[in-house]
User: Fold these one by one.
Assistant:
Number 1:
Amino acid sequence: MEFQPRVFQMFGGLYPRAHQPVEPKGKGYIQVLLKALKERNVPIRTNVRVTEIIRETPVSGDVRGVRCETKEGVRWIRARQGVVLAAGGFSANKYLRELHDPRVKNLGTDNLPNQTAGDVMMAAVRVGAYLVGMDFIQSTPGAPAGKKMKIILNTKVAESIYVDKRGSRIVDEGARRDQIRDAVLATPERYAYTVVDNETYESYNSAVHSSVEEGIRINEAWTAPTIRELAQKMGVDPEGLEKTIDRYNNVLVKNQKDPDFGKAPRNLTKRIEKGPFWACYTGMTVHHTMGGINCNTKAQVLDWQGNVVPRLYAAGEITGGIHGTNRVGGNAFLDCMVYGQIAGINAGKERRA
């Protein structure tokens, strides 16, 4: 897996500890893992929907396998050793996410559209698994209601700012994700904008550039040689945005202090001054569900009394209680990869049935 050498503070990361993959949008991880699977002749079955987890009795005994629905019909798969659940979270399940956090009502999601989101988690509940932290749901910048594209120019918090329609800055860009969500949704429009200069824009990868180019085509992103012209294209107050950028560069960055929102000095190192300038909408979309199946440090699934559900393991976003109320940016990688490895190793150590 190849990463870029620079370490930076990503959106919601709280500290400079992020390593950007060379390949965008998760492709690097998938390529490495697929190669390893092929080398070991591990089969991958697609279009197989798990609908039930099979246990000796509904709430006792070993987990023995799963019931699946395929294009050919129902299929029963027996587990010789353990079963690992890694089906992700329930951000794409509109009913579940709004049931547990009404604040996300009418927001979209940047997760893959998935009519079965949460199905495997609830199948685990039916064999005794207990759910924790279900009310903790995280949002990240994305397309506002009525807009088409999620465009990301906010990843590098030391190099971007959020402004509202009046051109005023609204939050510490290095704050927790829930604080940024609340600040964006508190604007009269329930959306904001991200502004960067050309040096920052050029530092992003081809996937970001492609989304911005498409955004410009449909008037959801903008570029201009001056801040005033950029504001006019955005529909933002030009004088307000000019005043905000001037204050940010010549007061906050110059003095390494943010009296407005408390942005950390380590994130006040980059002036926004090299044109052309770039901007995009920053609405809010549901991104990550911190709640899910309760597990121990061996990745074993636990019931409502803290007892292990034998031969059942879970890893990644389907689990709960790992991230508390707010997942710090980048930590899902460890949640998936580290607990995925722990779950796989321990499931493989189960005695053969």
Number 2:
Amino acid sequence: MERGGFRDLKVWQRSKELAVKIYSITGDGKFKTDFGLRDQLRRASVSIPSNIAEGDERDTDREAVRYLYIAKGSAAELLTQLIIAHEIQYLDKDLLKDLEDDCQAVSGMLSRLISSRSRTFKNKINFSR
């Protein structure tokens, strides 16, 4: 991945779109007065593309992978919060399914990117020996 090229990454684009969707959803309804859950959902969703971008700007593949794992953790955190929001009747079943699909797609994309970036720094180590 070229440094500074995070905006070209499909996973960054998709996770940024998810964050925008979360902001829109949490601006109305029961979220409007539940500041705690609303803010947690927003922070977790913004953390995903932010950590992808930060990882892209790091000097090494090893550091980039670390931030991609953080982004993956934020996707799991977001999914957990969405499930809770559904269970307390803030989200209907169809909306939860849509958001769950988005979270799982982003998580899968991150897994593939982590695998690719991990191979890159492992190959550099093996090549230098």
Number 3:
Amino acid sequence: MIADTSPMAVGPPPQIQVMQMIMAAMPSRTLGAVAQLAIPDVIGNDARNPAEVAEAIGAFEPWVRRIMRAAASLGVLQERGDGSFENTPLGDALRSDTPGSVRALGVLANEPFHFMAWGGLAAGVRTGEVPFEHVHGTTFFDYLRDNPDANEKFAAWMTQTSKLANEAIVASYDFSTANTIIDVGGGQGALLAAVLARAPQAKGILFDTPEVVADTSPLEGACVQDRCAVVGGDFFESVPSGGDLLMLRTVLHDWDDDDCVRILCRCREAAGPGTSLLILEMVLPGECSPHPGFIMDINMLVLNHGGRERTAAEYGDLLARAGYRMEGTTPTPSPMSIVEATAV
């Protein structure tokens, strides 16, 4: 059999493929600006011409047309014969009023404080200095604390990504046997609210820093607040006891190995033998294959000292150091996976 070596079979030459990867930042910036300008929101369920969109957002019409045309080339908008544009399903995902919206990510990714830190990546790899800290002169979380607008944009994306991940988690794990579920570092309670709504037999404990759990509106929105206690504290010091299932969602990827073990040890101290623990993170494949976690790992490197994504084997090592036995890993319909462990 003769191999098909036609251009359509072998794809672009390596130089073109690498060039496309390098230039991928440009479509990202384009879509970030489209999200920031709220163009898909203005278009909504109808079709709008660039002049109408420019008037609605207070922008320069000739350039509005150019960015809408570029968005159409990416499949986010579709141009009609009369010169107007409508949203495609991809455009709907950039609207703020649609389920599963990722508009907040588009806005965040287009913020200079975020993408400028990536400019320090090569220097950071050489020196081991966190690129964000090198560029901005402060840590990522201190920057958010001192810049309310940046913190608001980051929090908006965390809220949206939580909704997407939570739906995938509750669809992928059976919570029906749990009696008391403790969400360690659970933020305002969005995940716990989703779990309790799926597990009506269970009670919950939401645990995070006092300033974070001052707002638990997700619990109220899901009408589960009467089944949930709210506790403020520091998971490096202690974790509430009394649960037969503990959860850690996107907590450990913020910390280096030693700090992760400290957190897991506090969980183990609060849990009797046989108590289950769920780690909900992007779990990297054992081999370098296409997976969003590998690029997210570099994002953690850029932003945060010690933060990283890990393989299942690496989570197993951390768990063993803290007195847990790893039971297995379950993928979800999202990039998140569920690492299940048992206290020994």
